[in-house]
């Protein structure tokens, strides 16, 4: 009645590791889908980064959210202002 039965020890399969990030993966191809996309697009992304670095940056200052530009004279006025100095009315008629 008190006979002990031996425990069956089954060794685990070795985990498949992603060749890109090195973490265990369970996908059929052995590589995470997002890692495969990053690997495939690496050359294209590097090319785009160099193109962006070569492009001249605009000298225009950042847009102020508290000001609006008058379409008539191009002057900047406060957003709550109804009429520009030139006489243009911002209110719809």
List keywords for this structure.
alpha+beta; 2 domains; two-stranded antiparallel ribbon
Task: Note down, in words, how this protein is organized.
The chain has one helix spanning 33-54, and strands at 67-69, 76-78. The chain is built from 1 helix and 2 strands; from the N terminus they run H-E-E. A two-stranded antiparallel sheet has the order 1-2. It has 93 residues and is an alpha+beta fold. 24% of the residues lie in helices and 6% in strands. It folds into 2 domains: 13-55, no CATH class; 64-93, no CATH class.
Shape: elongated
Radius of gyration: 32 Å
Count of DSSP E strands? 2
Strand content: 5-15%
Mean pLDDT: 86
Give the proportion of residues in helices: 10-25%
Oligomer state of the chains in this structure: single chain
Order of helices and strands: HEE
- Which parts are unreliable, with pLDDT below 50 for 5 consecutive residues or more? none
* N- to C-terminal distance: 98 Å
The largest β sheet comes out as: 2 strands, antiparallel
Which strand order do you get reading across the main beta sheet? 1-2
Number of domains: 2
| Helical run tally | 1
Class computed from helices, strands and strand pairing:
alpha+beta
Quickly describe the structure.
With 93 residues, the chain is α+β, with helices and mostly antiparallel strands. It folds into two domains: 13-55, no CATH class; 64-93, no CATH class.
């Amino acid at each position: 009645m008190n006979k002990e039965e031996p425990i069956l020890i089954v060794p685990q399969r070795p985990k498949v590791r992603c060749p890109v990030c090195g973490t265990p993966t369970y996908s059929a191809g052995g590589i995470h889908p997002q890692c495969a996309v990053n690997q495939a697009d690496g050359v294209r992304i590097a090319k785009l980064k160099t193109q962006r670095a070569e492009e001249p940056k605009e000298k225009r200052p950042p847009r102020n959210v508290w000001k609006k530009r008058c379409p008539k004279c191009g002057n900047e006025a406060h957003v709550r202002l109804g009429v520009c100095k030139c006489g243009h009315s911002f209110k719809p008629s």
